Each structure stands twice: as structure tokens, then as C-alpha cells.
From TrEMBL:
Listed InterPro entries: AGP_Transferase (IPR051678), Aminoglycoside_PTrfase (IPR002575), Kinase-like_dom_sf (IPR011009)
Species of provenance: Dactylosporangium darangshiense
Protein name per its UniProtKB record: Phosphotransferase
Annotated Aminoglycoside phosphotransferase domain residues: 46-210
Length: 254
């Protein structure tokens, strides 16, 4: 078990991400997640314990801080940058997602379709009213997003399966991090989040996933997730218009 004394031997603290909701720091091989919302931390700890795929080891917890061991390997890639990972690594990521989706459901629910649709309406109105994105771009992607808002059989979803949250070593998945959004949800949402901005690897992921999926629904989730993300990213100091990021994903649908 890691102790504060061990951490004191490290002379550098890396800020991995920080905004007014939460922050993650790296101190040596330990990640410190600071979150005032203990419900999110509760979900993260329980989801990692339930998941049938590699997850970070919980070293200690002292609210509002959760200490996790670093997972080996490197991230599958980053949004807005080409991925150096092999097709086999992307396929392995798809296989890991399938293992998760085949696992028993977590006891807590996810967001309902009505909640998602309501938020989508609010965000699209905000984007247009404030002139953040062109009306035709929002309207076109809002129409595409409709395909994601359909009933489906819920599975155990990660809920925020960005490529930076999947770690690989060679062609093997070594760990999946950041489980605070885990819940019952749509399997295709996870697949869409994993491949957002990396459409060229969708075939590899689906091959590893090992079953037919509706590609139009995955594309719908790309539009929906991007529309929902833009305001949050802007308000928290991130740039969704960077090359290859959310705004480019929306433009690609035109």
C-alpha cells in the first residue's frame, strides 16, 4: 500500500487535468483524484471492483481524495492527434469493451433517453443562440443524433471511454481508467466515445468487439456527444475547435 511518506520522496507533481469540478494529479506512480462529489468517487471505486477488465489499483481513500496506482503502458491515443497504436491494439480495445458489456449490470441506473434528449435540446439552443456554431451545423448534427435516441438493452458501460482512458502495451490492453461515469447504458455509446475523432479505427474496434453493430447509431453518438460537450469544454478552459476535436467531428458529418 502506498503511503504519504513514499509520495514525499517524489519531487514533481504533474497536473493531469484540473477544473472547477475535479482535479487529477500525478505524484510519481500515484494518481490523486480530488472530487468534492463523493457520489462520483463511490461509483468509480465500485465500478472498478466490478469490471472484468484491468483497472487501476485503489491505494487509499481519504475524502475528497482517491489515490490510484498508475496502470502500465501508454494511452491508446489522444483526441486531435493520430494514434500510434496498431490495428491489433485497437481491436484489443474493442474486445475489452465487449467483456465489459457482457458483465453483470451495475446496481445503479444511467441517464434516461428523455434526460439525454432534454439536455441535447438545451445545448443545441445554447450553441445557436450564442453564435458558438453555425445554425446549419447544429441542425444537421441534431438530426443525425436522433438515431442514438432509441430504446436499447442496457449493458455495463464505462460511460466516458475516451482513448486517453484506455492504456495499452504493444497489442494488449493493460488498464482502463476514469470510471466515475460508469452505469447501465447503451453499448454503442462506449464504442462511439472510444472512436470519436478516430473514425479510421472504427473497423478495428468493431472487429475486436466481435459482433455486428449499427454504424449509423455510432455516428449518431459522435454527433450527440460532440454537441453536448462543446459548452462544457469552453466553460472549463478547453478548446473543442482544435484540429480533430469535437467541432471537426461535427463538421465531418456535413
Amino acid at each position: 500500500m502506498c503511503s504519504l511518506a513514499t509520495m514525499a520522496d517524489v519531487d514533481e507533481v504533474e497536473v493531469v487535468v484540473a477544473h472547477n469540478e475535479r482535479a487529477t494529479l500525478r505524484v510519481g506512480d500515484v494518481f490523486l483524484k480530488i472530487d468534492a462529489d463523493q457520489a462520483r468517487i463511490d461509483v468509480e471505486v465500485e465500478a472498478m471492483a466490478m469490471a472484468p477488465i484491468p483497472t487501476p489499483e485503489v491505494l487509499w481513500r481519504k475524502p475528497p481524495v482517491l489515490a490510484l496506482a498508475a496502470v502500465p503502458g501508454t494511452a491508446l491515443g489522444r483526441l486531435g492527434e493520430p494514434s500510434a497504436a496498431s490495428p491489433a491494439a485497437w481491436s484489443a480495445a474493442g474486445a475489452a469493451v465487449r467483456m465489459l458489456h457482457d458483465a453483470p449490470l451495475p446496481p445503479w441506473p444511467g441517464r434516461s433517453l428523455d434526460e439525454i434528449a432534454s439536455r441535447l435540446d438545451v445545448e443545441c439552443e445554447w450553441l445557436v443562440t450564442n453564435g458558438v456554431l453555425p445554425t446549419d451545423l447544429v441542425t444537421r448534427n441534431r438530426r443525425i443524433a436522433e438515431a442514438a435516441l432509441r430504446p436499447c438493452t442496457p449493458v455495463f458501460t464505462h460511460g466516458d471511454l475516451q482513448i486517453t482512458h484506455v492504456f495499452i502495451d504493444g497489442d494488449e490492453v493493460t488498464g482502463v481508467i476514469d470510471w466515475s461515469e460508469a452505469s447501465r447504458g447503451d453499448a454503442l455509446f462506449d464504442l462511439a466515445t472510444l472512436t470519436l475523432g478516430h473514425e479510421e479505427h472504427l473497423g478495428d474496434v468493431v472487429a475486436g468487439y466481435g459482433t455486428d453493430v449499427d454504424l449509423d447509431v455510432i455516428r449518431a453518438w459522435w454527433s450527440l456527444r460532440s454537441l453536448l460537450a462543446v459548452r462544457w469544454l469552453v466553460e472549463h478552459g478547453f478548446d473543442p475547435s482544435s484540429p480533430g476535436c469535437e467541432v471537426d467531428v461535427l463538421r465531418a458529418r456535413m
